[in-house]
## 1
Amino acid sequence: MCKGIKSKFYLHFFKFRACLFQPIFLKQSLDKREAQNALRKLSLNSGMIDFCSNDYLGFAKSLELKSAIEKEYNSISTPSNGSGGSRLLAGHTLFVEQLENKIASFHAASAGLIYNSGYDANVGLFSAIGQKGSTIIYDELIHASVHDGIKLSSATAFMFKHNDVTHLEERLKIAEGIVYVAVESIYSMDGDDAPLKEICKLCKKYNANLIVDEAHATGVTINGGKGRVQEYALEQEVFARVHTFGKALGCHGAIILGTELLRNYLINYSRSFIYTTALPLHSLVAIQESYRLLENAQTKIDALHELVSYFKNGLKQASPISFVESQSPIQCLLISGNEAVKKLAQVLQANNLDIRPILSPTVPKGKERLRVCLHSFNTISEINQLFKVLHELTNI
Ligand SMILES: Cc1ncc(COP(=O)(O)O)c(C=O)c1O
């Protein structure tokens, strides 16, 4: 047998053999997803017009940021490819401690603790604070990472209807023990705002601790990207804030902001902080330089908000599709049903517009959507191109 045919034969043989030894539920579960038109697949970024990424300010692809990171990283003489361990062992450095202080001070918080991702931060926070006898009340649209943190906690958990403060108050009335309320300042899949001021008032009234996930507000809010909590001067009212670095900041990781007491508690009890290798120096330098760039990014933030207004005004004229009311760069067009929303996304993609369908079960059945993310680097003509295709598709 020639070499090529032989290696193909072995490849098929091993694939076949591997299949035989897989638990049957793997295939059954995937078949079920396929039947629901909800099978998740990885797809490569194809150079289409970006209406999809969370890179709201273009930092992830910024040459200015790339060279600032390289310059700073190269100026550090000790080689550091990896951190060498958990923060509690070899992975702790003066650099990360100083960075935490700088970010905490940028966000007007007393202390901060960096995690390897926003997912880790939420899982580590909620699993650690959710002691037996305490209660966590969460908005029904809260991110999966908060759900996972709650699952790992010993607390009692109640959901309240999305942004419904009356329902939240009903929940607060029956909550027992130490009470936490979990919201996102800007919701990831809807792009709308939490009524933070009212929620804060209620938390004060019922002596509850408010936790705000600022993932999609970081770098985006009009106050230099410091987030909604600072925009409304609520720093003192909030128990903890989570800011992530993987969205507008264009890099990776997250920080939990709060008191020094909370920081020390998390260092002792937050398992996703303790039992993992710390971020390497290169990632920390990237976070530092990204925050530096953010300090001079007001023009970009203003441009982003102008595009959001342009989009919101034009969309109503371009298409009768209903949308989720939102002031943020996340604008969602509701198209019921996985098949329908997938088809529409395919047409948009065929027109060079990178817009992804958000399917159930990621969002509730019937609330499937096209999630359009706007960026400071998008242009009016790109948005007009999107309107044109939507108009042709929906005004027949
Ligand atoms: C609201 C919210 N919180 C947390 C996360 C997790 O952050 P990261 O991507 O840094 O893990 C995300 C990301 O999808 C998010 O949208």
## 2
Amino acid sequence: MSDFKERIATELTAVRNRSLAYTDTEDDLLLRQHSPLMSPLVWDLAHVGNYEELWVLREAGGITPLRPEIDDLYDAFKHPRANRPSLPMLGPVEARHYIEGVRGRVLDVLDSIDLHGPDPLHRDGFVFGLVIQHEHQHDETMLATLQLSKEPGLVRDGVLPPGRVTGEEEVFVPSGSFLMGTDIQPWAYDNERPAYRIHLPGYWIDRFPVGNGAYAAFIEDGGYDDPHWWAPEGWRWRQESHATAPLFWTREGGTWWRTRFGRTEPVPMEEPVQHVCWYEADAYARWAGRRLPTEAEWEKACGWDAAAGRARTYPWGDDVPRPDRANLGHRAARPAPLGAFPAGASPYGAEQMIGDVWEWTDSVFLPYPGFRSFPYREYSEVFFGKDYRVLRGGSWAADPAAVRTTFRNWDHPIRRQIFSGFRCARSASPEEV
Ligand SMILES: [Fe+2]
């Protein structure tokens, strides 16, 4: 096998080990639905194998279907998450057996396929990148399910570098054009393409994501009780949900507590806030005299190298994420404190844009000019429109293989079981420009 194929095989093994670790528990926990927002864990497990069978074995490899009768069960579009527990899903033992059988054949296809041929599905290993990223995204979803389950002891924690205080709360991005999206990232999804030039007036963006301490000040200032700070539909959500703090937060004895993977602990004020929905992020920003950055502002601040006239894959350059640059890949089961990664700063000095928490942006999920769906409409195209807001940057639970400056995630503005936070921005005044 070539070095490139070896690398793909290593990534396939790594992501599978991750999926198996999250499902290495009692059958009852795998079969149960922990929230109507989520699938039973065993559904995710067989679904990633079925997706791999569809794309690598059948589409790229031309292999006859192994289990065509289960395709329907694992089609995410046919069965909303709330209904999945009633499906005749494969049980845990059968699911593991099925995905292992698929994987063995996938490695055979990898061995024999030409990754430099004209087929865009094969070229640069795109189809393998597709299934590797897809499985990592489901692994992150499984972590969100495990968090909702409140079962203790299922998710490992770890050590992260300490934070630091800089005194400089925001960084300036001067007026100018930059290249948004990509034509050159081989595993980029269709929604990240094609690259196009866009001009942005000068703006300020937070050096770090908004921390728990700053967010607690918003709550204590009565932020959840004052419609003034909320968009009209956000205020409706606030009244209907009765939310008074981020999801998983409680107030007791004058202290904020949070429950994280079954453990309750004081809220660490120096960590980025997570488990807030878009409406909460939007209200906080208004209260702080700021606004959420647009998706373009976020991307430029993250990766545009004006001196070189090119976009970087990551804020620090094109080298793969190292532990001193970003908190990715579930090193610990939480975001790192603010200021933990000075070596991960972007050309403009923004930090922790990659990893820690997904960051809500002001933008709705729309195609870039010249968008073409590939390899299927249901990946991105059917979600375009005003129902979804874009999140950027990946969380602590996202794997380096599924994170880059141009990567776009999207969700409903009410969602907060995801590992979501935000940072604020503001337009530069005429004197500042
Ligand atoms: Fe999926």
